[in-house]
Amino acid sequence: METEAIPFARPSIGKEEEEAVLRVLRSGWLTTGAEALAFEEEFAAFLEGPPLPSPAPGKPPLPPLRALAVNSATSGLHLALEALGVGPGDLVLVPSYTFTSTAEVARYLGAEAVFVDLRPGTFHLDPGALERILARLSKGLPPYPQRGGCGPRGRPRALIPVHYGGLPCDMGALRDICRRYDLGIVEDAAHSFPSLIPGADLGDAAGPAAYAGTLGDAGVFSFYATKPIATGEGGMVVTRNQALADRIAVMRSHGIDRTVWNRYTDRGASWYYEVIEAGFKDNFPDLLAALGRVQLKRAPVLLERRCAIARRYDEAFGEERRFLIPPTGGGDARHLYPLRLREGGLKRDEFIRELQKRGIGVSVHFIPLHLMPYYKKRYALEPEDLPESLRAFEQVISLPIWPDMGEDRVERVIQAVKAIAG
Questions:
Q1: In this predicted model, what pLDDT tens digit does every residue of 322-349 receive, in sequence order?
Q2: Which among 59, 122, 133, 46 is positioned nearest to 92, based on CA atoms?
Q3: In sequence order, which residues have a C-beta less than 8 Å from that of residue 166 and are 6 or more positions away?
Q4: What CATH number has the domain bearing residue 140?
Q5: 8 in a domain, yes or no?
Q6: Domain coverage including residue 400
Q7: 3-state class of 54 per DSSP?
Q8: What is the DSSP secondary structure assignment for residue 275, as one 8-state letter?
Q9: Would you please indicate which residues are annotated as catalytic (active-site) residues?
């Protein structure tokens, strides 16, 4: 009998999620309403929970964290940059080694993306490379010195660091650089719920740890079908900046000063509203919020299941000279398991084909954006201009790591990888 194929990713959906969705279907209210509001409050409360940093001596408590549900993490990144005032003539610094949404949101606003290379041996943006680019830009030079200089010029306004695969990047170093160059920070936390950053410093507060996504001006999470908690589509913006939160709340729903839930439940003036900005259509419906609330409750269990699979992979591949297992830490959400193939063995694409022949779902995270035709042409970039991003791309494969895999599937993946490597 043919062996069952193992998909690369599959959400963990059970009876409770089904009942939550049915409850909303039967309520007669499907768009943004009470469920979405409750999801926002519960999400913020989760991120404010232990181990929440404490105020430094003599300092006021941290402002409360606000969570704003949106229809995708892409929308969340866009809204956060717009609220920071990013626009034409501005530069947004992002890793090349990320999904296209991280950079495309700058283009939505007429700004340009400046790609930063990876720190060697990691999948994270290199603080040293970031500082070198900012130093060149501050002198009016193009960001990349290769071939006489290439890349966009303008005014650096924001950084979008990506917590790749669920492992938080070096936010301490990045925050220090951004303070010195007066850059806003929007954390791309699409992979990293719930990822803990130990010894977090929030300026006026410090503690044993804080969650990734809470250390910048804003953080953006994804609930896409493959993400640690999944609603199919959707995202969440979190911020302690009240002005940013207020702006995002208005702009995510057409620039209208009242939510549709408020208009339809306020008996005094349900029909009246005012358009105070030219906003967007980025709201999050109750149907998905109900699903998200259940997934949020299950998040610690889902995290432990992913971590258990990652530990099994680490044990299986850690002493193999043919592989480099992904760097990790205590706060890693383990959304991805990017196995890196050492040079001299089977080429990455051939390795993937062999895994697919054995029914093993596999992906690549990511194709660097400076290799994509749009950005390559726009900024006159060559593959070698960001060598660490190129090297990681040529060597990496992402293995299945979803909560309900079970030991049999995990073992099949391990045996297939080892057999192909020879």
A1: 999 999 987 899 999 999 999 888 999 9
A2: 133
A3: 191, 192, 195, 228, 332, 333, 334, 335, 336
A4: 3.40.640.10
A5: no
A6: 299-421
A7: strand
A8: B
A9: 227
